[in-house]
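// run 5 | inverse folding | seed 20
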């Protein structure tokens, strides 16, 4: 007596038809699923189609429920971490207006919400100038260097305009 419970099967059901001597044959049912980059397939009899489809749907529903639970846990842990940081910022006097707004939202909607404000502050971008050139321009006049380069350029046949 074999009393095993069926594991939900992953994948999806594809229906295919074949042409043979101008006649359409089929439908043929194939369950397909991926493991890594490899695509597997299993042919299904028409009489087993509803059972296999139900197993695939059960697997999909089980997976969605696991994703929903993972998302809930990640959001709750992230929000608790954010509240802990907000407590530190409160002591330092560094709370921002978006932190106050998010705290009000946490109070009304609960700790499983997403959309936390960014922790990192946006720093203004500096224009990049090579440090050596920047120091040179600050400390010296460009004219003496230009005058020194003119004979060098003239030797090589480059006509420099000042």
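// decoded
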């Amino acid at each position: 007596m074999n009393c095993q419970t069926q594991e939900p099967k992953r994948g999806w059901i594809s229906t295919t038809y074949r042409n043979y001597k101008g006649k359409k044959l089929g439908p043929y049912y194939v369950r397909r699923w991926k493991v890594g980059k490899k695509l597997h397939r299993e042919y299904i009899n028409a009489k087993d189609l509803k059972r296999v489809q139900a197993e695939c749907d059960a697997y999909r529903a089980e997976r969605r429920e696991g994703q929903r639970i993972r998302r809930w846990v990640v959001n709750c842990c992230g929000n608790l971490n954010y509240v802990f940081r907000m407590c530190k910022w409160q002591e330092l006097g560094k709370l921002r207006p978006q932190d106050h707004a998010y705290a009000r939202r946490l109070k009304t909607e609960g700790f499983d919400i997403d959309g936390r404000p960014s922790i990192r502050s946006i720093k203004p971008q500096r224009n990049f100038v090579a440090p050596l050139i920047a120091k040179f321009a600050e400390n010296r006049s460009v004219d003496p260097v230009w005058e020194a380069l003119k004979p060098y350029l003239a030797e090589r046949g480059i006509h420099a305009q000042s």
